[in-house]
Amino acid sequence: MTDDKDVLRDVWFGRIPTCFTLYQDEITEREAEPYYLLLPRISYLTLVTDKVKKHFQKVMRQEEVSEIWFEYEGTPLKWHYPIGLLFDLHASNTALPWSITVHFKKVVELLFFLKHFHCNRFLVSRVREWLLHSSNFPEKDLLHCHSKDVIEAHFMACIKEADALKHKSQVINEMQKKDHKQLWMGLQNGNNRETFYTEAISTNCFRRTVAYFGRPAKRCVS
Hints:
- The protein has 222 residues and is α+β, with helices and mostly antiparallel strands.
- The chain is built from eleven helices and five strands.
- α5 runs antiparallel to α6 and α7 packs across α11 (204-213).
């Protein structure tokens, strides 16, 4: 049991040193410096990269920035995969820090012009559709993530699916709604990871959560 708890703790507190750089073709008003961050294995890129987004938005025109997405050596990184899984799949054999390229889905000024002058809604809709297909966002590879509610819904769906396969949903069914929210808040708020870990380590649901995110690579920081 002690060894089991040690593994859970290593996974929960594991960090991956990461260097974020802005894609070279992004239009900036001045040179964008790289941004370094220790990424938690048990989380999602779109959940822990608010500071990264704010850092690069400082050198870009706000009207040209919309959705953020990431890639590693030409491969778009799926935000709905845990960070630890993404690292193990794509970069476990590379030198640290993990180098991730940041992209921003473009929003052409024409759309803002049409809205500002109250143009026909049908025209605005068609222009929006055209922008969707002509943007640099890899539609075939990535899901859109417009809010943290989307991440929460995906996270809970994965936990429920894992519990259904492992325990026929017995663990999730025994939890109250507040327990579900606590599980999510513990994942979302990195500052409370120690408190959440202490409170939740004895629950089977937490063990299923850690199992879902996987064991840490040896070169990760813990």
